[in-house]
Every structure is written in C-alpha cells, then in structure tokens.
Write a structure and sequence with these properties.
Largest sheet: 9 strands, mixed
CATH architecture of the domain at 14-80 and 141-216 and 310-384: 3-Layer(bba) Sandwich
CATH class of the domain at 14-80 and 141-216 and 310-384: Alpha Beta
Helix content: 25-40%
Number of helices: 12
Structural class: alpha+beta
C-alpha cells in the first residue's frame, strides 16, 4: 500500500506531535520529537477491522464514500474467534456478487445441528429447509473471511485499510466527534472524519472515550476454547453434548475439532485446581471421538478462557460517532451468531447512511436510525441467548442428571419446528439485504 493509501489523500508528515483535543503523549505513545505525524481527511473512519468494520468499509468504499478502516494488528490471524458464517451472511455475499469466490475458500458445511443428552440424540435445527442461497452454516477461520473482504475491497479507490494502525484517541469539539488520532509504529496519524464508526469490539476504547451508556445483562457461564486433532476419516455429527453436569460444543474443522467446554462464571481457577489430566479425562469421557488426540492439549496455555458477557448500548450514536457490532452489543456465543449480527449491522448502516455524507456528514437523527433499525433484532437475539443460557446450559452444568427439556424433545419430533429454529439461527431476526449501490468508476 502506498503512503497515502488507496483514497488519494495527501498526508503532511511533520516532526513533533500535535494531538487532537483529547490526545496527550502518555496515551498516544509519542515519546520524543522524532515521532512523526500525518494528517488526512476522510468521510468515514471505521475503527476496528473485524467483521462489522471490514464489511462496513467494503460497502462504503463500494458506494464511493472515502473510507479508512483502522486495524491495530498487523494481520487478521487470531485464534478462537467466531468462525461460523451463517446463511444470512452468505446471502449478503451473493447480493454483492462475491459468493462464488467466497465459497472457494476452505470451509466445512453443517446443515443439521444435533445435540447428545446422555445417550439421547436430539435434532435442534435443520438448515437444509431454508429458502436461502446456502442452506447450511459454513465453518471458516475468521481471518480467511476478513482477508477475503480486504482483498476484494482493494478494487475500490475510495477504501483504505490500514493494518498495524491503532486508534488511541477520539478528537472532539464540544459534543461532536470530528476524528481520530491513531498510532502506527512511532508515527501518529490525525484523521478528520465526518463520521467515526466504532467497530472495535466489546472492549471498545472509542466507545469508552465517547462515554456511551451500557446496559449490562450478564451471563452465568464462561467458555473454555481448545482444539484437538482429528483422525483421518473420523466423523461425528454431534454439535452439543450434555452429560453428568457438563456441556460441550464440538465443531468439525476437517483436520481438527474445535471444542468449547462450558463452565460456571468465574470457575476457571477451580477447573485448573483439579488438574489438566482430570480436565482432559472429563472431555474424553464426554466425547470419545476426541480421545485419540486429547493429549494435543499439552498445558493450560492451550486452553483459552472466553469470559461470556451480554450487554448493549442504550444509545448507539452521538454527533459524528456511531457504534455497531460488538461495540454496540456484546453477544453470547450461544448460536454462534455474533459474526453474522455484526455483518447485518454493517449492511444496515451502509443502507441507511451511504447517501448522507454530503456537507458535514450524517446528522444525529440519521445515525439514530441505525439503532432504530437494529435494536429489535439485537434485543430478540439476546433474549433467546439468555433463555438458552439460564434454562438449558446453566442447568445442564449444575445438575448431574439433566434430561432433554420437553421443548427440545418436541422440536426433535416435528420437522417444521426444526425449520423455525434453523431460521432463527441461520437467518436471524429481520435479516438485512444490500441496498447501498456500487459507484461507477469515473
């Protein structure tokens, strides 16, 4: 990438540091006068290169909006991130003309979701019945998904994706956010933007600096993520396993099993105190297919703790600033819908705002329309997640004997109910469709 990126904006490098109204040397990391600074102006600055940020950047760049996406890491390679691409996201890919190339990436397809309660098998959802281009969930490493969007976005001269560039300060004047101060190595970048969109996750620094109000919902569980090698030819269609006070998800990733072992909130230290061998024995007892390679878990460093939280902002916007994706609403891993909700947020944001960047950019009323559009799907999805956590998962890990609930036994018997659960998981509540245009090259 050239020094000015892809959007053709002139940057002025100068010695020294002149921060925005909220910046200071301790926060930006500038330590001496040798640190360089540059300034640029865009229409939209997207903070965070996750699913929401990369999809929004792609859509706005596609629509001809001068957009910069800031990703603090040098690449997208991060393990134990959401790897489920649902039919709703693949519908968006089709609408963008990207689906055929997207499906060439390595992935695994799962059309039926089944759970094993003791020795009783329950079919939870049948996605093969959906009216969608792809009637299955695709399991794909998130870094492949993000690299794909980044690569396809290079065709748009109005889109600039900056890796190793971390937003460290919002620039504010009065009540309005007018840009971002970012750091790339020892170089400071001052970005003036009509709109800053926070897509920097559930621990968003920009959301915190903007003092956005959060409604904490909470969760009674945490999740331990780890992987176990998969013997050639081994297969197992079970998605969820419940047995003797334990709950675990196993995802077939072709050459390995991705595993999520559910524990009570704050119980990781107690699990570790019982010893790694005891943990591996319990896992292998729950899922015998993991036993041949369970020693791939060589230490606790191979087990990652995901502290589950559910929350949402009560206000997503203020003048010049908007939060979407996990920065607006942290989701539980239940259903694996986080990536797909983030993509839906991005599509709705582009639909509502792509033609609002004339003059000083979108008004607060126009930004509020994003929350108005997306709050119902978020509330509904979180309500379902809370019900599943409290009435199914938390009870399952608390009770030594836990039979399949009546509701799940009914779903198992009635295919039309498996279709309904598939719609909720695969398409979500009120799925979005691409309405933002593709600008024609001049």
């Amino acid at each position: 990438m050239s020094e000015t990126g892809q959007i053709g904006i002139v940057e002025h490098a100068k010695p020294g540091l002149h921060g925005g109204p909220m910046s200071n040397s301790s926060q930006t990391g500038a330590t001496d006068s040798r640190s360089a600074q540059a300034r640029l102006t865009v229409q939209c600055c997207v903070v965070g290169g996750g699913p929401a940020g990369m999809m929004l950047g792609y859509l706005l760049g596609r629509a001809g909006i001068k957009t910069i996406v800031l990703e603090k890491h040098a690449d997208f390679f991060r393990d134990f991130r959401g790897d489920t691409v649902h039919p709703s996201t693949m519908q968006v890919m089709q609408e963008l003309g990207l689906l055929d190339d997207f499906l060439k990436l390595p992935h695994q397809n799962v059309a039926q979701l089944e759970g094993l309660f003791g020795t009783t098998s329950i079919r939870l959802a049948d996605l093969s019945t959906l009216d969608a281009p792809c009637r299955y969930i695709a399991f794909m490493p998130q870094w492949d998904f993000l690299n794909f969007l980044s690569g396809k976005g290079k065709q748009f001269s109005s889109l600039d994706v900056r890796m190793s560039t971390e937003a460290v300060e919002l620039v504010q004047g009065g009540d309005r956010v007018s840009g971002v101060v970012a750091r790339s190595g020892d170089r400071m970048l001052h970005i003036e933007a009509s709109l800053v969109v926070a897509c920097d996750g559930r621990h968003s620094i920009t959301r915190e600096q903007a003092e956005m109000p959060i409604h904490e919902i909470g969760a009674p569980i945490d999740v331990l993520w780890f992987r176990v090698g998969k013997p050639t030819g081994a297969t197992d269609g079970m998605f969820a396993r419940v047995q003797a006070g334990q709950f675990m998800i196993t995802l077939d990733r072709d050459t390995y099993w991705q595993c999520a072992y559910v524990i009570g909130k704050g119980q990781f230290d107690a699990v570790k105190a019982r010893g790694l061998d005891a943990f591996k024995a319990r896992v292998a007892q729950m899922a015998p297919i993991l036993k041949p390679h369970i020693d791939d878990v060589k230490g606790w460093d191979d087990v990652r703790l995901l502290s589950v939280q559910i929350d949402r902002l009560t206000r997503w916007a203020r003048p010049g600033f908007l939060c979407i994706g996990d920065a607006a609403h942290a989701m539980s891993p239940v259903g694996g819908v986080g990536v797909n909700l983030a993509v839906q947020d991005a599509v709705a944001t582009a639909n509502l705002l792509y033609d609002k960047f004339g003059g000083s950019g979108p008004t607060l009323a126009e930004l509020d329309r994003v929350q108005e559009r997306r709050m119902f799907p978020v509330r509904a999805t979180q309500a379902i997640q809370v019900a599943v956590q409290n009435k199914l998962i938390n009870r399952a890990i608390s009770d030594a004997q836990f039979d399949p609930p009546l509701a799940l036994r009914i779903v198992n018997k009635l295919p039309f109910l498996q279709h309904l659960t598939a719609r909720v998981i695969g398409l979500g509540v009120r799925p979005e469709h691409v309405q933002s245009p593709e600008s024609k090259p001049v």
